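Two proteins follow. First one:
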Amino acid sequence: MALNGRHGDAHCRGFINNNTFPTVVIFSISLATLESCGNSLVVSTAQGPNAYGNLSLVQIGNISGYIDTPDPPTIISYLPGLLYKFSCSYPLEYLVNNTQLASSAAAISVKESNGTFISTLNLLLYNDSSYIQQLSIPMAGLTLKTRVFAAVKASNLDRRWNVLMDYCYTTPSGNPNDDLRYDLFFSCEKDPQTAVFENGKSQMGRFAFEVFRFVKHKNQKMSTIFLHCVTKLCRADDCPMLMPVRL
């Protein structure tokens, strides 16, 4: 079985997974190569709730096509032919977490329940505005008001797609739904010590903020900060209309 009749291309054929019951055939469709197997991609923009229930413009990617069996090299056949048409929609918005400020990187694979759409997003911390050397955090922690440079980067995408950071915030725990949170930037508002350098213009979003402490950690030697970013993928031409106006 193959995608859209491309039986001669190994990348378009499915592979059998015998570890499930019943046995299934799995097809992997990458945003970077989906057209090479004849799939169709339609991107629409709609207003809906984001990761935290706030209304936001989100782009939705709909991937469609069909899966079939090869035709026999004869005029007639007594074997049934299989044809499955599919259409899957994926909201292109994700929550990227950095485990904690003492960790320099985190990567996630995003999986949706109506299929599996995998795109790797990395949240990285750097020493300075050159974004070359990743941040190394001493055992004693970072000094208050140390400037930290952060970047959200996407991989496994072609040039049609850019990264748009919707908002980034911090919590005193690893739970992104923690009731106590401090926004670095959110919609049109941002923390005075936060600067957004690049957003929606490439496959990397860049910003910087100054190290602070949570007051609830006053009895602790160090205040641990967990960084989270709600991030969208958008077509390069459409990103400007999805961006909020920063103050």
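Second one, unrelated to the first:
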Amino acid sequence: LVIMFVINWWAALLTNVIVLGLFIYVSYKKPDVNWGSSTQALTYHQALTHTLHLSGVEDHIKNFRPQCLVMTGYPNSRPALLDLVHTFTKNVGLMICGHIRTGYRRPNFKDLATDQARYQRWLLKNETKAFYTPVFAEDMRHGTQYLLQAAGLGRLKPNTLVLGFKNDWRDGDMMNVETYISMIHDAFDFQFGAVILRLKEGLDVSHIQGQDELLSSQEKSSGTKDVIVSIDTSKDSDADSSKPSSKATSLQNSPAIQKDDDDDGKATT
């Protein structure tokens, strides 16, 4: 400060007056601004630098990691699939939870961004080290191709596609079965490995009503600890389009798809 006045006293005085004026203005107005911290800025810079350095490293046995693209749909709708992959990617590998939404109407990208932030918080609060990545696509196969091509960053890209087993392949629509098989072929074409998880009772728990309420209650701070969850045992009843649907069991162990209805605009198939 002294050197400033020695070099040019009037410029130094003007600078200090401006800084003091800005300080008084900010202190008086108290704007709702997240100023962040220098530590967070440094973390971002280091992550970006290391990611760029990794892009020039060739693959070898010492840097191979299981990096999985898991077709979970909503992360809380297939906990078994999520937990299985998390057991061998935790702390050592990348896990991306893929969610394909299909529909012929104009997609609502605002809702997509809201859900992306919401379910990413859900993963963090459940201490699941994964990234939630939803996409809009014309159909399930195209959505899978989009994720296989674009998911990840640099060397931090998936190398394994993880799917749930299609239990009704005998009785389901042959077009859906063909799409399911084509997804596996696409993974091989992109030089991906493939993992298919099969459980006798299935993987999809989205038929349990109250998933959204449970998610909202976990996002709140301290409140009532008891959560009431009701189970809808009827197979033919219509589910609320704002929640993952249980109407179709054909994809209960394959990626969840949210499809636009004529009425509400969104439903899971």
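SUMMARY FIELD: The longest helix spans residues 9-29. The first strand starts at residue 68 and ends at 71.
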